[in-house]
Amino acid sequence: MLKPPVGILGGTFDPVHIGHLRPAIEARDALGLAEIRLIPNHIPPHRANPLCSSEQRLAMVRLAAAENPGFVVDERELKRDKPSWTIDTLIELRGELPDTPLCFLMGMDSLLTLPSWHRWQELLDYAHLVVSLRPGWQPDYPADIAGLLARHGTRRAEDLHLKLSGHIWLADNLPIALSATRLRDLLARGQDTRYLLPACVAHYIEQEGLYRTVAENPQAGPAQPGGKPGHP
């Protein structure tokens, strides 16, 4: 008999915010997940290196996880000295959890770009894909993704309990229009970010003086003085 499924949420978490956490909470509740594993990565393969160090991002993720029942932190990707490919992490987790369905959480934008992922055709061999909505998004599925949904899509939450992997479940979650880039710009401007990230994370950012330099948006206005810039 299979154990209750486990959710997997990876990312740079630079910083972790409600756009990460709220869809994960809704997936946990809708699917009856045993836990959500937050997996911060060290070297993201598809984007620039994070502004904050691995240690700072790990500290923020730990703070966020501590406030959410069923959330745990998995540090495995931070210990790698190479890009963190999702397929490698899923293979490791499958070896460690042979009787547990794995549910890899992603946004609709990630699903649409899935063919650009490393060994993407193998992902469903190791996990289910749980896809959250994005505000105002009207998906125009490419042919390969439309075919993937036709073969693997399900609307039945119980299906993800009955198999170790292989389904794609489209979540009916509350859409949240927030990106880490936008949040970092707000922080750099010194604007109020309450309700956009956990209060404990906001306190850590303030305490450490993170994100006070404007590195991404030259129109964002002057940086706030007196802070320690995030590590490149």
UniProtKB/TrEMBL annotation:
Signal sequence annotation: none
Enzyme class: transferase
Pathway info: Cofactor biosynthesis; NAD(+) biosynthesis; deamido-NAD(+) from nicotinate D-ribonucleotide: step 1/1
Gene3D superfamilies per record: HUPs
InterPro entries in UniProt: Cyt_trans-like (IPR004821), NadD/NMNAT (IPR005248), Rossmann-like_a/b/a_fold (IPR014729)
Location of the Cytidyltransferase-like domain: 8-184
A molecular function (GO) term: nicotinate-nucleotide adenylyltransferase activity
Catalytic activity from the UniProt record: nicotinate beta-D-ribonucleotide + ATP + H(+) = deamido-NAD(+) + diphosphate
Annotated keywords: ATP-binding, NAD, Nucleotide-binding, Nucleotidyltransferase, Pyridine nucleotide biosynthesis, Transferase
E.C. code: 2.7.7.18
Assigned protein family: Belongs to the NadD family.
Function: Catalyzes the reversible adenylation of nicotinate mononucleotide (NaMN) to nicotinic acid adenine dinucleotide (NaAD).
Alphabetical list of NCBIfam families matching this protein: cyt_tran_rel, nicotinate (nicotinamide) nucleotide adenylyltransferase, PRK00071.1-1, PRK00071.1-3
UniProt name for this protein: Probable nicotinate-nucleotide adenylyltransferase
Organism this protein belongs to: Aeromonas bivalvium
Higher taxonomy: Bacteria, Pseudomonadati, Pseudomonadota, Gammaproteobacteria, Aeromonadales
